[in-house]
Amino acid sequence: MADQKTEKIIVAFLCNWCTFTAADLAGTSRLKYAPNIRIVKVMCSSRVDPVFILKPLLDGADGVLIGGCAPGDCHYSKGTFYARRKIALAKTLAGSMGLDPRRIRLSWIPASEGPRFARVVNEFTKQIEALGDNPAKREVYI
């Protein structure tokens, strides 16, 4: 059984053009944000398939954050439109699998907003901590 004091793991799929750059800015600016985030760089948030969101949750990650360009600023024209649809589908599927859809978050974070990235990560981490352990979490033996 997982201990409530264990670190909550959040997998973050970040758009190369905006949110990943904001994360880099947050790091170079030495802004404090929760260290429990595991970043996966993607070219666009629209490239994040619902399976990519559900797999970490089913494998025991406590939350999944998807970060992309603000609507209208996407380098691939309609990327934010497609991302919204995919995330909505992933939340619906998560709910039907018995997982709380609040474990999935989509945020639009422009490249120049490192402080906003840090704030979103910290807010989402607090939300995930309030939800408790992911029911799909398994004990990992090393």
Relevant terms:
single chain; 142 residues; alpha/beta; Rossmann fold
How does this model look, in words?
It is a single chain. The protein is α/β, with parallel strands linked by helices. The protein has one domain (10-131): 3-Layer(aba) Sandwich (Rossmann fold). 39% of the residues lie in helices and 16% in strands. It is built from 4 helices and 4 strands, in the order E-H-E-H-E-H-E-H. The protein has helices at residues 19-28, 50-58, 79-96, 114-131; strands at 10-15, 37-42, 63-68, 104-108. It has a 4-stranded parallel β-sheet with strand order 2-1-3-4, with helices on both faces. Helix 3 (79-96) links the parallel strand 3 and strand 4 (104-108). 42% of the residues are buried. The model has no long low-confidence stretch (mean pLDDT 93).
Shape: globular
The total of helices stands at 4
* Number of DSSP-assigned strands: 4
CATH superfamily: Lumazine/riboflavin synthase
CATH class categorisation: Alpha Beta
- Calculate Rg over CA atoms: 15 Å
Series of secondary-structure elements, N-terminal to C-terminal: EHEHEHEH
Quaternary structure classification: single chain
Beta-strand content estimate? 15-25%
Main sheet? 4 strands, parallel
In helices, the fraction of residues equals 25-40%
Instruction: Flag low-confidence runs.
Output: none
What is CATH's topology name?
Rossmann fold
Distance between the termini: 16 Å
Structural class: alpha/beta
Overall pLDDT confidence: 93
